[in-house]
Amino acid sequence: MMYGDPQQQQNQPHPQGGEFQRGPPPPQMTRQPSASSTTLNSEYHHHAPPPPPPQNLPYDGYGDNFSAKRMRKMTQRRAVDYSSTVVRYMQVQMSQRDSRDRTTLQPTPAAAIDMLPAAAYLDNPSTGFAAKFVHTSLNKNRCSINRVLWTPTGRRLITGSQSGEFTLWNGQSFNFEMILQAHDQAIRSMVWSHNDNWMVSGDDGGALKYWQNNMNNVKVNKSAHKESVRDLSFCRTDLKFCSCSDDTTVKVWDFARCQEERSLIGHGWDVKSVDWHPTKSLLVSGGKDNLVKLWDAKTGRELCSFHGHKNTVLCVKWNQNGNWVLTAGKDQIIKHCLGTHSMKNTLSVGVMMDPFSIGLLGMKFHRLTFPVHMIIVCGVLLGILLDIFCAVVAMITQQSFGAEIGLEILLVINLTLVRIKAMVSKILH
Q: What's the confidence (pLDDT) of residue 324?
């Protein structure tokens, strides 16, 4: 019988009156024998418990019975914190009127806490140069990267590849976040609207697609052009945008309806670049016929043509003041045009070699240094990133990224912070 057995308690009669019936006493506690006890026999040996049965561990390809899932070595991931200077700038701008009240940076590591973003040093444009290589990111699907574009927030980078994929990269830790099959053919052009709500992309098949901030595709026009869509540009109001293609045409589109309004015909060969005027209905385009043309977007009429290049014009850009046009091509020459006048200033990039294998692929105005200074960032087919100070016609910095590669240079302003990035791509035709 066990102490406190419920069945035994049921068989016992219940106490009557004030009597209390006690149960059996608990068993006496005795000390367990141990190896040091003197009561044990001298020949006593304590037997160890049997070992556990062997487990069937998976057999991996290295010839051992360790788990197939190996522990990876912990590596420190490199990251760039670009928000510290912005936080410091927000703290000091309440007590500083202009550059006269700014603290002078001393050449010591301790002065790094007083460093401000490039927007705070308009009198020193060299602070906006990307003079140090940071990181190389590789996609799983090895193919050429034709376009790179920062998101409106400046925190992520979107790349358009030869396989038609969008890859979203983290701008701080440089790891990829998402891969999306956006197009059926190679992506050739991408542009964000001025309100930062929409992105338009074009591919080798002549198709145009609309994308939201969350990379949701909302509209497709598969017959926009007959050949590759080389460049895109929005007007200031985002109601219209233009596109150029290898089918020798420049087209003006209604953004809401995604319908063609006008087709500008005048180039004799592939059109490589187009840009909309910052404030007017004026377009500038450049192509493989070595010509730079100005167009009236309302009437579709050609206004004038520039004959300043001796080879394919690969890039044309308006300045934000609306008076300057920059053109660049395979002849290694940057042309600076003042309004609708003839090309007056010629800037050499300083790399004079075989003109058929070296050319300028992309360029951007340094927005924060205008109108105090005019600085151009450009990339050439040798894989060199150049910063040119146009006021003295001198090359400031030069960075090499390897041979027989091109650079796509993009500039994004995020909370008064300028970030200039370069992405390696194959040579554009």
A: 82
**226-346 has the same fold as 138-224:** no
Query: Are residues 277 and 264 in contact, defined by beta-carbon separation less than 8 angstroms?
Result: no
Closest CA to 117 of 126, 128, 106: 128
**Arch. (CATH architecture) of 138-224:** Beta Barrel (2.40)
- Percent of all residues in the chain with a pLDDT value above 90, rounded to a whole number: 32
Both tokens assigned to 11: 């068989």
Question: In 3D, which of 247, 254, 255 has the Cα closest to residue 225?
Answer: 247
The first and second tokens of residue 9, run together, are 């308690």
What DSSP character marks residue 382?
A: B
Cα separation, 179 vs 139, whole angstroms: 9
Predicted pLDDT at 119: 81
Burial class of residue 36 in the structure, from the number of CB atoms within 10 Å of its CB (0-12 exposed, 13-18 middle, 19+ buried): exposed
CATH class of this structure's domain 226-346 = mainly beta
The β-bridge relationship of strands 302-306 and 292-296 is: antiparallel
Per-residue confidence (pLDDT) for residue 24, from 0 to 100:
67
pTM: 0.67
